[in-house]
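Q: What would this chain look like folded?
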Amino acid sequence: MIAAVTFIPDFFVQLFLYRGYLCQSVIRDLRTKYKRSMLGYLWTMLHPLGMMVILAVVFAGIMRIPVRDYSIFLFCGMLPFNFFSSTALMSLGSIRANARLFGQVPVPKYIFVLSITFSNLFNFIVALVPLLILMLILERPIPITALTFPIMMIPIVCITIGVSLILATSNVFFEDTLHLSEVGMQAIYFLSPVLYRREDLPQWLVDILVISNPLFNQIEFFRDIFFSGVLPDPKLFAINLASSLVVLALGLWIFKRSEDKFLYFV
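A: My prediction, written as structure tokens:
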């Protein structure tokens, strides 16, 4: 693991050196995604908004979950999870899809995973607009703690990149990774506090989920600053930041150890 951590400084150096290519790649991805869509970037806002409406009606209206402004509560949980799951699943085919560029474009191979990550991060930021509009409509003040959003995003971005690198690598060698990942994302969704509060679970289960599910605290951090208007405990945030860097280091280590073999399997 110590060897894996040494990849992190080089990763950020490479990220800076190839920032121009990465920006162009992100812009290309966004243009391609909405090229033939009449609503274009509006889908970035409408999709999570539509899912929120459906789930809010089911859980707040039918199942009577006792949470004030449950639609906002739900929205705050959906956005970080959607960022993680969509990035991880889209990254599965990134190596195979760009294999023909390996010998033509002198960039690190993980740049293709980063392109997907930052494209979805842009979508995440755009999706904040309907969240803020919804808060204004429901006359819920937008807390000053929302300004810490860039800092709160650091752990989940690191975790997302690390997991995406692992899945992208695995999918090169094992095509069943796609099916297992889809099932895994469903499991993570229900084991994350998207639909519920930690208070709704027995404490022993919360203790297990906090340790085993890297998204559990990340979703709560996001909800704290937008819904509750409080900052996470600094010690807890520092622990989660360190853990997210470990996941990133593990993803880089696995990817680096395998990238020389990619051309033999794609």
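The radius of gyration is 19 Å.
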